[in-house]
Design a protein that fits this description.
By secondary structure, the protein is α+β, with helices and mostly antiparallel strands. It folds into 3 domains: 36-45 and 240-335, Efflux pump adaptor protein, beta barrel domain (Elongation Factor Tu (Ef-tu), domain 3), CATH 2.40.30.170; 47-78 and 207-239, RNA polymerase II/Efflux pump adaptor protein, barrel-sandwich hybrid domain (OB fold (Dihydrolipoamide Acetyltransferase, E2P)); 83-203. The protein is 45% helix and 23% strand. The strands form 3 sheets. Strands 1-10-13-12-11-14 form a 6-stranded antiparallel β-barrel. The chain has a 4-stranded antiparallel beta sheet with strand order 2-9-7-4, with no helix packed on it. A 4-stranded antiparallel beta sheet has the order 6-5-3-8, with no helix packed on it. The radius of gyration is 46 Å and the shape is rod-shaped.
């Protein structure tokens, strides 16, 4: 009889202990569900790499998923028109430079002798025409020659006088040297030719598409042989230097965060822990923009985006775009931790 009572009381005590343990477990589970770890995402800034010049693609030097460094060659484009433009600009610069040197040095000895000879010829012709005109004029006053002959000699005299005046002015210009305005004009033409050549060479370099920063290539949109349009994205990738961690939180929690303060996040599946610093707190336009279930905001609450940057360098292959991360012991509503 006593044995049966002992067994009965033993079962009662067992069930009581079991209910107590289950109660504590439920309470702990309820506390954990009320304050779960803050969930966020890994984000990299997306970069679109395009060509500044249109042309046919010769080479694609990278593959999707490949990591490249700043300045690495991504593609080469064939643009024959730019090569011709460079050659034309080089020729124009040579011609402009030669004219500028001529303006600085003035006329050569050959040009001086040539101009003096032309001046002497023009003066001789003028003297002969002038003497002939004076004789014919005297004869014309005496009505000894025909009027037509007089007009012919007079016309020749006026023409040689004008020619002699031009030769005399040309000689004076040569003897006095080149005017400063002509030197400035020649220099301006040379500088303009230099600028055109620099522009053509700069455009010629753009046929080689290079990585603007350290990045991972996510997609390659064109193949060799295809025609690339100006400004059309050839590559899409994620920049290593633009790594950040994005979390969302309601206004009841966001006031507990401080810009510039250091926090710790943990990668969901690798367990990697990263020290981060809060950079920005931005209000989201609507709940649809939230990427985590953590906020569970109340009616009327605004949801904010929290952007954290790594406090130290992170190995690029250790994290990938859109990975899930947790912030344990994150601030809770009312400032609790």
């Amino acid at each position: 009889m006593n044995t049966k009572r002992l067994k009965r009381w033993g079962l009662v005590l067992f069930f009581i202990c079991a209910f107590v343990i289950m109660g504590f477990a439920a309470h702990a589970h309820r506390e954990d569900s009320e304050h779960p770890p803050m969930s966020g995402k890994v984000r990299f800034e997306t970069i679109h790499v395009s060509s500044k010049v249109p042309g046919r693609i010769i080479t694609i030097a990278v593959r999707e998923g490949e990591r490249v460094r700043k300045g690495d060659v991504l593609a080469v484009i064939d643009v024959p028109e730019i090569g011709a433009r460079v050659e034309a600009a080089e020729g124009a610069l040579k011609a402009a430079s030669a004219k500028y040197r001529m303006a600085l040095e003035g006329a050569s000895e050959y040009d001086r002798k040539k101009v003096r000879s032309q001046y002497e010829v023009a003066r001789s012709q003028y003297d002969y025409a002038k003497n002939s005109y004076h004789r014919i004029a005297s004869m014309n006053d005496g009505r000894l020659i025909a009027q037509q002959e007089y007009e012919r000699v007079k016309s020749n005299y006026l023409a040689t006088r004008a020619n002699f005046g031009a030769a005399e002015a040309h000689l004076a210009d040569i003897e006095s040297g080149v005017r400063a305005e002509k030197i400035e004009m020649a220099e301006g033409n040379m500088l303009r030719a230099k600028g055109a050549l620099r522009e053509a060479r700069s455009t010629y370099k753009e046929r080689v598409v290079r990585a603007p920063t350290d990045m991972r290539i996510e997609s390659v949109t064109m193949k060799p042989g295809e025609l690339a349009a100006q400004g059309f994205p050839l590559f899409t990738g994620h920049a290593d230097e633009a790594l950040h961690f994005r979390f969302t939180a309601p206004e009841s929690v966001v006031h507990s965060f401080s810009r510039g303060k250091k926090y710790e996040v943990r990668m969901a599946f690798t367990g990697l822990r990263v020290d981060v610093v809060l950079d920005e707190i931005l209000a989201l336009p609507g709940y649809a923009a939230v990427t985590a279930m953590y906020p569970r905001k109340k009616t009327g609450e605004t949801v904010y985006e929290l952007k954290f940057r790594p406090a130290d360098a992170v190995e690029p292959d250790a994290v990938h775009h859109n990975m899930r991360v947790f912030m344990e012991n994150a601030p809770q509503a009312g400032g609790a931790r």
